[in-house]
Structures are given as C-alpha cells and as structure tokens.
Predict the structure.
Amino acid sequence: MYAVKTNSVQKKVIHPGVSIKWLIKREDGAPSFEMRLLVIEKGGSTTGRPHPFEHEVFVTAGKGKIAGDGETIAVTAGDAILINPNEKHQIINSGDEPLEFICIIPNGKEDRIK
Amino acid sequence: MYAVKTNSVQKKVIHPGVSIKWLIKREDGAPSFEMRLLVIEKGGSTTGRPHPFEHEVFVTAGKGKIAGDGETIAVTAGDAILINPNEKHQIINSGDEPLEFICIIPNGKEDRIK
C-alpha cells in the first residue's frame, strides 16, 4: 500500500496559472495508471493540446469549462469527465476560486512534466 | 468527451453500508481504466478481500482507516492511496460522516458489481 497526502506533495507549475501534483506515479509502484491533482488559478487555462491517450478527470473544487472538439461543457465539483485519446480539451477556470481536479492517465505518458 | 455529474448517477449498494456509483465505465468509451465513487456510511466497512488488480483511491470526504497486509493507515479527504494487486485492504469509516472516495481500476475487473 502506498499513501500520500495532497498537502505533502510538491506542486510543479506547468503553464502560467496551472500547477500539478503527482499523487500516484509508476515510480511509486502503480502498475498501469498514474494519478495527479491539477490546480488552475482564477483566469487560467490549460493549452488544449490533444495527446494520443485518455484523461479521466474528477473535479474536486471550483468551476470551469472544457472546450473540446466542437463542444464546450461546464464543470463543477463532483463532475467526472472522460477526455478521449486525440481529443482537443482546453480546461478553463471560469470561477473566482481555484479549479481543482484529479486527472488519471496511463503510465508513463507525461513523464516530461514530472 | 463524456461527462457525468455524480448526483445524476444511480448508486448501487454492494455491501451493507457501502454503495458505488460508476462514473466512467468502459461502456462509456474508457479505453483502459474505470472510475467509480464509493460511499461508506458511518460504522460501515468493505470486506477487505484482495483481488489481482490495483485500486487507486482519492478520498473526497470523511475519515477512515485502511487495514492492509500488516499495516493500518488513517485516511482523510485529500489522501491518495495505491492498493497493490493481491493486497488485503479493508476500508473502514472511522468518522461520523460518510467516507467518500474515488476508486479507479483497470477496465472490466469488477463488472459483476456494475
């Protein structure tokens, strides 16, 4: 068993207004997928670049929008979102508080931002 | 993109005091892993039976304990836990409020409780 408290994990800024904490990594023993917590500050957004693997997202705090291929959806705490491989997905904080979400990906796909 | 609100998903009781909501399933298009929300009511716990695949857990509300192989850890909102394949893991609500957590598993491993 491997356990970690979000507050004890160092955050890494990966884009202006966007930070990541790697909670469960393959280096921690994860057999096939990795868990991260992302925080987008007020006014911030991710780049929207697609990638050839899925994201599974669970929003834990805040309000936002996800702009995908031809659709934009509103999201808030308690929403789960599957972003398919190769799908455009810009995640935008549309509220006044930080937008926070868990994001799970297959092992080893984003090692460059560890 | 597939999105769902936790409140709109039907819960299924899988054990006395323990319910599950399947948020992102392979039937929804998930390529390799599935996301569920589990709720353990006050005084409740899971069975602890091990299984030959991993769980990745993120606690969203409440307080609990996880009894593993030779260790018991306390968990609370914001904690992430990797339960390894074949590892014993009884999850116990040790607080006064429901213990709620996201639990991700590889595709198709718990179809019997869908």
